[in-house]
Amino acid sequence: MECDDPFTDLCLDILVFEKHVKVFILGDFNARVGKYQNTEILEENIVNPFLLRESKDCIVTDYGRILIHMLDWTTMIVLNDINVFFLTNLLTCLPVSSGGSELDYVFRKACDLSMVNAFKIGPLSPYSDHKPLYLNLILLHPHQLMWYR
């Protein structure tokens, strides 16, 4: 990644932390990736149809391209919109002025999705124009769970 990319620090953090713990990334990235696919699911001309994303947001911004590039560097994928999880192809940000977009994502390594028991996008609340993301994990050793800020 280029040093001036907006996601460089996150990329470096992922590469450091994944040596010690399973890394999941959730949040508002202000980047629209549309239907732009990770190269992680397109390697060697073999496409896993369950990992192809079908977003309702068709717009790809420059930040979106940079975000996907960062995910490719870390071999992570966007969990939103893939067929493994039912009803995750919903718009996550609904400001009235733009008609809605997908800015809030969950990222994880494709090879380790068995830890994800469920992923869903919650309903819009009166306190935010972003929908909450819910992730239910299967932890074999819950005492190893570590929290970082």
What would your notes on this structure say?
The chain has 149 residues and is of the alpha+beta class. The chain has a single domain, classed as Deoxyribonuclease I, Chain A (4-Layer Sandwich). The two termini are 23 Å apart. The radius of gyration is 15 Å and the shape is globular. The chain has a 3-stranded antiparallel beta sheet with strand order 1-3-2, covered by helices on one side. It contains 2 helices and 5 strands, in the order αβαββββ.
Strand order within the widest sheet?
A: 1-3-2
Relative helix content: 10-25%
- Could you tell me the CATH topology label: Deoxyribonuclease I, Chain A
Structural class: alpha+beta
Q: What is the strand content?
A: 15-25%
Quickly name the level 1 CATH class.
Alpha Beta
C-alpha-based Rg, rounded: 15 Å
The coarse overall form would be globular
Topology record:
Layout: H1 8-17, E1 25-28, H2 62-74, E2 76-78, E3 104-109, E4 116-121, E5 133-137
Antiparallel strand pairs: 1-3, 2-3, 4-5
Briefly summarize what is shown.
With 149 residues, the chain is an alpha+beta fold.
Relevant terms:
149 residues; alpha+beta; Deoxyribonuclease I, Chain A; three-stranded antiparallel sheet; two-stranded antiparallel ribbon; 5 strands; 15% helix; globular
